[in-house]
Amino acid sequence: MYLYQHKIDTGKSQQMIKVTGMVQEDIQKSGIKEGIAVVFSPHTTAGFTINENADPDVVSDMLYSLEKTFPAQDQQYRHAEGNSHAHIKTTVCGPSQVLIIHEGAIVFGIWQDLYFCDFDGPRHRSFYVKIIKG
């Protein structure tokens, strides 16, 4: 088993950053050809999703829809820090993803990539990748 940590700086209040390449590099470093990779965000306002990589408007539409559904400004939120919307969006996306490794590569559909989602930026973030031989 291998554990890798990544540092990532987000530049916007809410964004999705493609991190597939970072995880694929970890898989190559590990030398594991068959197994799983678990990616995990230790933040309560940032997580992961797997989604389309071909059209950048998909990311924009996702962020728009999440903001429309869980707006940053809502007088009914009680959390004193004022970032309840980010906690809710992270719960919807999830703090982790499990990826299948086959022949040394992540198994994705043709249009899929892994995105780190920050809903309370800009911040200095980190995430972990645990690679397990299968």
From TrEMBL:
It comes from the Bacteria. InterPro entries: UPF0047_YjbQ-like (IPR001602), YjbQ-like_sf (IPR035917). This is Secondary thiamine-phosphate synthase enzyme YjbQ. Belongs to the UPF0047 family. It comes from Hominibacterium faecale. PANTHER family: UNCHARACTERIZED PROTEIN YJBQ-RELATED, UPF0047 PROTEIN C4A8.02C.
